[in-house]
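Hi, here's the filled form for the chain we discussed.

Project: internal
Contact: R.S.
Residues: 212
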Amino acid sequence: MAWKRSEKIWYRWGHFLCFVLTYSLFRPKIKGKSNLPKTGAYLITPNHRSLFDIPVLGCATFRPLRFMAKKDLFKSKFIKWYFETNGSFSVDRDEGDPAAVKKAINYLKNGDVIVIFPEGGRRRKSHIDELATGVGFIAAKTKVPIIPVGISGLDKPFKKPRLPSRPRVIIGDPITSHISMDGKTSEISNALLSELSEKMQSLYEESLNENF
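And the returned structure, exactly as it came back:
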């Protein structure tokens, strides 16, 4: 399930356009870009506060990213077309979606980078919400590094009368503890989710500091 040539072309053009628009509008501050591996498969797991998290996160790397996006977004024909032509795919988080999980595993085994928002949707809380078990399962099955990310400043990006808020993104060190773990997938997943939740919380709190 490698990137198709057409997907890459659409992604490159779409990414370039989003990069220019996002930097012009939001001027995001991004810390920790060096923590993103230049090669190989890995999972990126940001907290989720706004739909703008997606283009802002895309400013952190020029490697093609496949987003696992919630099914509701695909109700719009344009958004469905845009995501699918750019290599991303939908997941039904309410009913569970084995097909989406299998697709993510296959992409990772092929060396791709997958972005999953493990809180399962946008949250307005000051703490990281309970993480979806599917994230831990995918990581435990594929044994790929997980890159936790904290994003803030996008809860109310167009607060009048000020200019759009300047988002802050902190990319954490890769989580690799699960790669050498032995045991049942469920046990590895549970241990991993606990570690991931703590690191995401720490990064989110750090991102709230405007002077980072």
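Let me know if anything looks off before we file it.
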